Amino acid sequence: MKALEADTAERARAHGGRRALIMIPGIDVPFHSSRLRAGVPAFRDKLDSLLPESINLDVLQGRYIPNLVARPFELSRDFAQSILEVVPSEATQKLVDNWDEAAANPQSTARTLLIELLSWQFASPVRWIETQDLLFSAPPKGLGVERLVEIGLASSPTLANMASKTLSLPAFAQVQVDVINVERDSARARNEDAVAAPERAQADSPASADEAAPAESAGPASAVETPAVEVATEAPAAPAPAAAASGTMPELPLSASDAIRILLAFSNKLLPEQIEATDTVETLTNGVSSKRNQLLMDMAAELSVSTIDGAAEASMGDLFSTIDSLVPSYAAFRTGPVRSNQLQAEEDLRIRRPARDLHHRLRQGQLGSVRAVGCTRERRNPSRYTRWRFNSWW
User: pTM for this one?
Assistant: First the structure.
């Protein structure tokens, strides 16, 4: 990496402009580079062991757009040939050489193609520009997509931002596409932002004239109506007084390391007590670099620091000591909305309590099995905020 950095710096000086190499902390694997081709066989074997034998072809054909070839998936010789144009896939070559036999076994062929597409993808370029052209262009050249929904974090809507910039180009001036990030634009993604139509005034109702006629015809009959009989009714009993509210729970002290322990537990679906002193961020995330990097960024953001040196490899014991010395005056964030099993009956209830209060309740088992639908950190400086969304807690 040092040699590569020196080379790019020299090229920048010779030709002008900025360096083409940017060092990103935590990224230590050259994803989507041919340097990873040696790992394709092992990844292929792993996919083969995980994918079911039966593949739903309706989900794949015409819907799945692999980055490897930037065209919709289909069971055809031409599609299989497009894979061979970019990677030397032996399994795909065998299918092409005996396509009549392959076409007679669509399940097996689709599964083989899917495994080859996925196994070669992490060692091949992402053809996102071509994919966008396919999505946004009108038929027959493209698919004419009207809404693009990115499944990703609101804090980094990478694909949504790139799509919006692409749609601002002159080539797509006549194209109308609704670009959404499922977390940033959750109301729009779930169609919860609809505004109810105003109710029509009673005077404008065509039924008002029809209702007036029966009223007039009933006029003469009213003279012979029997007098009304007054019926005494008992007043309803007064409602029972509500139960007295329980006293406020005393807050527990929460240090910076306690907050990070909770964050690590939430992200990895563990109890705080299950995180041991010998664990590391690397082991907690099972070596998944994207999850590890996101967790490192969340930790730094929670502590309002740019980075935590050695956080990925340090043991929890050493990391917590470093964090407490780095941020001795940590201020807890506030959580909400949170739901527990006991609160499900109250559909619109939202509770907002300090994190240490929540931590204490979780330890005491007072919230039972908890599921978080959202967790927003609130700081004194409103310009600094982060929204987290977890699939589930305990």
Answer: 0.49
